[in-house]
Amino acid sequence: ESLLRAMGGKGKGKGPPPPPSGEEAAKAHAELQQKRRAQMESEKREAQESIAQAKELEAKKRDLEARLSTLQSHAIAKVPWDTALLSTHLCGGKGAAGVLHTGSAGGVEVVELPSNNAVCVRHGTCIITESIADALAEVLGVRVARMRLVLADNDECLFIKHAIDRFSTLNISKEMKRLEKQLPTMDEETAAKVRAMINAGPSACAVLEFVPGHALDISATALETPSPDLLAGIGQLCALDLLLNNMDRIPLPCWGNVGNLTNAIVT
């Protein structure tokens, strides 16, 4: 009976392994610390490489923005998205681009293509009303940047997303994983919005004609001695904006606001 009691009340089996000796425990602890240091060094190198790549890409984007006036317009009917060389976001009236193309950002994405060509891409809820304005301008013969809607269920939407994401300075996959880990700490409403963003596929967008030239607000030289065509074009834009109640371009007295001359390009 005393023998059975010493064996834990059982006649068969083995007891727990003896604890490691002091030397073995020290060795295991040292190995664990070494693994942690190696992991930290690896993560540090990856972070430094990511920062260096982001800085290099940002420099290329700045160079592209400086070259915009030298680029030519590519036809918007059929765009070879897989040949895209670079893209950069030009902010509009609603701020900078977000993490994903969710429709919350303003401005356009300029995509550079071979042979010094370019097209633009716009996301957001405004593209529906802009497509109506584009159709009206075409009927009236007013020269504006042409556009083409691409619905979310169209395969081209995925091609456009991949073309733009290739040149993002943000690691979107890593950012999504980070947000997913933070979901338990968010309130219910915020968590629902973040889940929708994480699970969202490509959103509808508009392919816009890239118009080479300079914005009206920095075209003082052209305005000093304007050609009849330039004056006629500005007049037609004013008439179109009046018809559309668009106060975000030429500052007309009927609205009493400063307008946004960057939305008019002098070619």
Given the structure, what is the number of helices?
8
Question: In terms of structural class, how would the helical and strand content be classed?
Answer: alpha+beta
Shape: elongated
Using only C-alpha atoms, the radius of gyration works out to 29 Å
How confident overall, as mean pLDDT? 84
Which bin fits the share of residues in helices? 40-55%
Distance between the termini: 103 Å
Contiguous low-pLDDT stretches (5 residues minimum) are 1-7, 93-105
Oligomer: single chain
Number of strands: 8
**Biggest pleated-sheet summary:** 6 strands, mixed
How would you sum up this structure, described in words?
The structure is a single chain. With 267 residues, this protein is α+β, with helices and mostly antiparallel strands. The protein is 45% helix and 12% strand. It has helices at residues 2-6, 22-66, 126-140, 155-165, 172-182, 188-199, 220-224, 228-244; strands at residues 72-73, 86-90, 108-113, 117-123, 147-150, 205-209, 214-215, 265-266. The strands form two sheets. Strands 1, 2, 3, 4, 5 and 6 form a six-stranded mixed β-sheet that branches. It has a two-stranded antiparallel ribbon with strand order 7-8. A hairpin with a 3-residue loop joins β3 (108-113) and β4. The radius of gyration is 29 Å and the shape is elongated. The termini are far apart.
